Backbone:
DNA sequence: TTGTAAGCGTTATCAA
DNA sequence: TTGATAACGCTTACAA
């Protein structure tokens, strides 16, 4: 591996001069600088990240953490992060929960964007309290080094449920996500609030606990079909489960929306193709904004007010106007 | 940041003893080992990756590189890589082309899996020749440190085209991907070969150059619709473009497959929902296998024979039997 | 079984 | 404008 020493030797100067050139210090003669840069190119020199990180304790790399490979919209979040990071001369590395803490704790990264729920609040708070900037997605943590970027789930969910009521739906089923997650709670609360405001009753037996995966939606729908009377609308806490439910209905000869309407949340790629009514989350923007706040925080512009992103309803064929 | 020194001080031993414990060396007393491990936990010590990499020159981290955020099946490749890597006590980091060379050249990573075509062959060969193990996906590079894992495009494409001919199709259009990529070349060659074998003529005006993105398929189909006579089957070099084409047809009142059949390649999530006939690539397995070869190569079991993965045809509603 | 000390590639301080 | 040198956190001979 060619290092700074090799360059120094080839150029007939000291390592510190090479280092100064590479870091854009102005205390180097023009002629020397040129010569050194040329030699670096010729010998295809790349600064060793490990040595750099070790000595300087700083890093222009940020870390993004996620672990769920089923949700293709995560790629859009990454896309947004990547674009902002590139525009700001930072590097981006991505890792799963398994190695996340390791990379946060070594000084290879200057900050992290955390999506995976498996990274526990307490761990993040501990790391953040050592002045390590963190942005968390989809949850709120109260700490002077942690910024939260969350989607406003409540308002669009309210609006969608009210829209369903306005279209004549009265008997609802609900397929929930992992119960402890903040977004699932918000979505469910909005659902219950609107029903209550409209004096529509909801029984616990119409609630199905899922895990945000397609399979759990499929299962929920199958169970639903076993009951005496099926609701006229099945509200799902995300798209994957809604799609699973739609497949179960299709496999059992139940028509959507004639026999039962279905709604989701996320607006994933499949939602459009399957004509699923859902709430569209601006994922690219989410990633972009998260990266922006993180890099601003790394640069010392402390800002940890939770940021709420708004989402929009997409009315599609999986819901009709009930006669 | 708590380092090995702090642990040593707290335990009343030397740093080397701590290091030996952390690296599982057996030259440490049982009592000492226990005590040190406890202190590490209490003080939530994490070894500094930079220091470690710098000194040892080795790394149990591998790098995966990709840059195209439109293709959601990439997540499945990552999933396969991630699973194999976790099972083998390695770490995985992912980065885009922008910072890829940097992470390959510092000794933070022990090897790389390269997907992005923007990483040039010459660059990879140069890095590999410094004994850095590399696995490339979707291309073949002849170098003793580079393993190629490629999909067999030719055979299933042949089979699919022959299947179309057998179903009565005679007038074909073709939407190609980026012309220099090996997989596009193979797919197109299989297409032409089968037509020739069946004495079916193909004119250059029926070839449309795309870029594997949905939009280019949409555009190709729009252009196609301007011509005098449209073919009875449009073969696309990947699913995204096929889906774009299907949308263009739908938007213009052209029925699939009654007016024109469409085929793709990849079997992405949307393909199933849209009833697109396509070739299914086992992406999870691709990632898993790539990771396996990479880690074996890192461990010294040199093996650089190109590996071909086979793919299967999925006949779906976008193709009918022509009367 | 444990400790001492050198050195990995880099940056930063200070002297020349 | 340049160079010598210490230090970052860790591993590894080798000495005790």
Residues:
């Amino acid at each position: 591996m060619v290092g700074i020493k090799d360059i120094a030797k080839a150029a007939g100067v000291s390592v510190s001069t090479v280092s100064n050139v590479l870091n854009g210090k102005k205390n180097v003669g023009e002629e020397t600088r040129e010569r050194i840069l040329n030699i670096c190119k010729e010998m295809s020199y790349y600064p060793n990240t490990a040595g750099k990180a070790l000595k300087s304790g700083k890093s222009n790399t940020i870390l993004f953490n996620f672990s769920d490979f089923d949700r293709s919209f995560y790629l859009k979040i990454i896309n947004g992060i990547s674009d902002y990071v590139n525009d700001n001369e930072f590097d981006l590395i991505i890792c799963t929960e398994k190695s996340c803490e390791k990379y946060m704790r070594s000084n290879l990264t200057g900050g992290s964007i955390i999506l995976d729920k498996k990274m526990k609040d307490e761990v993040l708070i501990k790391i953040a309290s050592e002045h390590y900037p963190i942005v968390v997605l989809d949850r709120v943590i109260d700490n002077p080094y942690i910024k939260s970027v969350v989607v406003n789930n409540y308002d669009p969910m309210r609006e969608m449920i009210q829209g369903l009521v306005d279209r004549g739906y009265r008997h609802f089923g609900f397929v929930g996500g992992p119960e402890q997650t903040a977004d699932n709670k918000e979505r469910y609360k909005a659902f219950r609030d609107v029903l209550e405001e409209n004096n529509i009753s909801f029984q616990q037996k119409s609630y199905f606990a899922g895990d945000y995966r397609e399979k759990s939606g499929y299962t929920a729908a199958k169970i639903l079909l076993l009951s005496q009377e099926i609701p006229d609308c099945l509200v799902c806490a995300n798209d994957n489960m809604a799609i699973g439910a739609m497949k179960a209905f299709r496999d059992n000869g139940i028509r959507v929306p004639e026999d039962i309407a279905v709604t989701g949340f996320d607006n994933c790629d499949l939602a459009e193709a399957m004509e699923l009514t859902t709430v569209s989350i601006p994922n690219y923007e989410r990633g972009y904004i998260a990266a922006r706040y993180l890099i601003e925080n790394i640069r010392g512009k402390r800002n940890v007010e939770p940021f709420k992103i708004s989402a929009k309803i997409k009315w599609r064929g999986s819901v009709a106007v009930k006669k």
User: Anything to note?
Assistant: Chain B touches chain A at residues 1, 44, 46-51, 53-54, 61, 69-72, 74-76, 78-79, 82, 86, 91-96, 98-99, 101-103, 105-108, 126, 130, 269-270, 273-274 (CB under 8 Å). Chain B has three domains: 4-47, 56-152+283-310, 154-264. Residues 21 and 34 of chain B are 9 Å apart (CA to CA).
